Amino acid sequence: MKIGIIGSGSxxxxxxxxxxxxxxxxxxxxxxxxxxxxxxxxxxxxxxxxGIRLPEGIVYTTDMQTACEGKELLVMxxxxxxVRSVARQMKNDVNQGTIVVDVAKGIEENTLxxxxxxxxxxxxxxxxxVLSGPSHAxxxxxxxxxxxxxxxxxxxxxxxxxxxxMNEYFRVYTSPDVLGVELGGSLKNVIALAAxxxxxxxxxxxxxxxxxxxxxxxxxxxxxxxGAKEETVEGLSGMGDLIVTCASVHSRNRKAGMLMGEGYTMxxxxxxxxxxxxxxxxxxxxxxxxxxxxxxxxxxxxxNRVLFEGQSVRDGMYELMQRDKKSEHTHLVWEE
Length: 336
What we know:
Layout: E1 2-6, H1 10-21, E2 25-29, H2 33-42, E3 59-61, H3 64-68, E4 73-76, H4 83-90, E5 99-102, H5 115-122, E6 127-132, H6 137-140, E7 146-151, H7 155-165, E8 170-175, H8 178-201, H9 205-225, H10 230-233, H11 236-247, H12 252-261, H13 266-273, H14 278-293, H15 298-308, H16 313-321
Parallel strand pairs: 1-2, 1-4, 2-3, 4-5, 5-6, 7-8
Antiparallel strand pairs: 6-7
Helix pairs in contact: 4-5, 8-9, 8-11, 8-12, 8-14, 8-15, 9-11, 12-13, 14-15, 15-16
């Protein structure tokens, strides 16, 4: 297939490597002329994926028409905060029926829409899919075994994406629960900020395990309230992605949270990470969704207080621990 990758960051380049190695004709669009030239001459993203050689047949461009025109499948790999504006740039060059695969993870703050819905609004003639799961670019680029989920409302679209990306080290499952896959991928970034903050405070493994476990409960309750399926959140794009983002040295959300736990401000932490920290941009939207659907989200609310209300990480942790007594599973019945 002729494939365009829209975005030349670490994830865009890692996925370009996957599909190029699978035998497809790949063009990568970058907003930065200097970065596009570097990739074309060095065949390596020196800053984001150092040491990972990209196939020489990949074409690099800063011209959106070149990236999109005539392509059968496009991958939206721009940061979530830029998805709508980039989609508008693509609009005139995307053919009717083209499959557009979102790999950005986030929720738009003003509209509370996930990325797939934004693409559907901006590219009404396209067929939208989502690819998400526990998949750090640094490991995918090195062909480490990875499992991920292709979600679409149409089985044929999800299976097409599955066939394009799947190989001996990149296993792709399919799902019809687009909303569940997107919410899992977006909300886990907010929980990962909390897990990083705990690491910055050096509170230990017990704290991390509690945040992951209670975090997946918050994600599940909100996702189900919005119409997603519980089993989706229990799978790769929910629990799987949450575990890797809360625990991995590659996680930018965990790293930013850890720096804040060590005393950095939010802005200082984001500058130190040198990448877009998606959880910061999704946190407000997640809190608003909790309010809209009347779902209690104590960890997400605590992250918002630290990010936007000036609360210290230590005070936020203390408030979480001092909440009213609860039963872990309120639907279970006591014998006496």
